[in-house]
## 1
Amino acid sequence: METILVLTHADETGSALTRASLEAVTAGKELATRLSASLAVGILAVDAAAAASSLHSSGARLLAVSGEAFAQARYATDAAVLEALCRAANASIVLAPGSSRFTRVAAGVAHRLGGFVDTHITALGGGDAVEATRWFYRQRVEAVLSRDARPWFLLLDAGTHKAFAGEVDAAQVEEISVQLPAIRTTVSGLRAPSQGAQTIRPDAKLLFVAGAGWTKKQADGQVHATEAGVLILGFLRLAGASLGSSKSLVDQGGEGQPILPFLTHLNQIGQTGATPRHAKGLSTCCHGEEPHVVGWRFIADRRAISLDPNCGWTRGKADVVYVADAFEVMAKVNALLESAKA
Ligand SMILES: Cc1cc2nc3c(=O)[nH]c(=O)nc-3n(C[C@H](O)[C@H](O)[C@H](O)COP(=O)(O)OP(=O)(O)OC[C@H]3O[C@@H](n4cnc5c(N)ncnc54)[C@H](O)[C@@H]3O)c2cc1C
């Protein structure tokens, strides 16, 4: 009989679980129900009692480690906490969100417990057994893994499960004591781009893709890169969308061509880029070639704006294609969004 533990952690407030953690709780509940196994949730937070309130109706045993020492991710303290939670739950299957915080320590914790870890899990299946699905070779090959090794740690990709949403109320939490090692690392502060400058938003409903057309000569024979940047950033702000790019557009910087300064290769979608998960996608000024569109595998509703009626999107790669000038369309869309907000 398996004993399932879901490891979760708080967001930057220290008192609320991250969305990816709540997704892992859903995965744990589904697995525990299918296997008729016991379910525990381990919480790492500054204020674990507050964080646990969202799990009040989860039906799981709640174990927690809390305190100021856990406000920041730090290998030594995080690894010690996860090890203690796993030992307290005597877990054979450990599910955890594949966040940067947990991805950093999961392999080390699995090793300390003599277990095994697999990452980028997108689904859990199987009848009486645990079978974990993940993609290899840039989303070309989907594999189903099973292992005899226990404890088996499975880091889940974000966006693959619904976030657990139950009644919020005070929950009964078992505080687990942890013997912390000597701490050599002190976190003196965080330096990150301001929220407004952050264009990659994995939790956004919409992916907005900018293609190279935005910086190409337009009908008047001129390049309008500055105007393009204003339109794109305006839309991201108004719609809360995540920004993706074609390879051609992000490559242009190195070629000395006009660029959009807020784009980097991290925005690139496609065969040699990212394969994000969003409910909807809007491609603009992009030709929709196969090496790009392969990165849209997990975008459910696809739309494109292109001047070219023969572009790849019109050849079965999008649900709706607007054969139109993206400068005009996005200016109008932004104006409508502005007036809707006012
Ligand atoms: C091995 C390999 C791997 C690759 N990996 C990737 C990858 O990961 N991601 C990726 O994106 N590409 C990848 N590519 C490149 C890919 O094949 C294309 O070259 C690239 O996606 C083209 O980018 P684009 O559509 O933005 O630019 P273009 O092909 O230049 O298309 C620009 C489009 O914008 C339209 N346009 C111009 N002005 C406007 C306007 N005002 N309004 C509306 N539309 C307008 C034009 O009609 C045109 O269709 C890869 C290629 C190879 C060989």
Note: The longest strand covers residues 116-125.
## 2
Amino acid sequence: MAEERGCREEGRQVLWAPWRMQYIEAPKAEGCIFCTPTDTSALRPALILGVTPHARVMLNKYPYNNGHLLIAPHRHTAQLADLPEDEFHDLMSLLRRAVAVVETALHPQGLNIGMNLGTCAGAGITDHLHWHVVPRWTGDTNFMPVVSAVRVMPQHLLESYDQLRPYFTSSAAVQEGDFHHSHQR
Ligand SMILES: [Zn+2]
């Protein structure tokens, strides 16, 4: 019970990620990061973990937490309603798989899943819609500033990439529902 209350209180805190200033202050890259090539050689440099007929999943280069994933449709649009049914379902299916992968590979204690539409809603990229999947651990809001220097190291991102990439290249090894069951215990 006490643990449950702690978790809820944690959820109300704003996740403080000061290293994201690098992103806020950096000159904006030309072109759309969700519209880059997806041929095999382009995947790792762009931190793209998986590609489906209509969507991609990638590591956020400026993560709020370890394992922060972005899931976007190939279609360059800011409007959810612009996605034809099959593209929407492919996107949602990849979102579900991304959550299952994070749960299986990283064993978070919680997850934030969301989509920011528009600048006032907090979207960093406003013209190409994308889902965020942010794994959470109890106390990570306090812990993260301490290790922020480590978290933005490119090597660290590539280590995360190499850890998660195999889960998106085969149909095996993802225990759907693992997270749910662990919380029922
Ligand atoms: Zn785009």
Note: The longest helix spans residues 85-106.
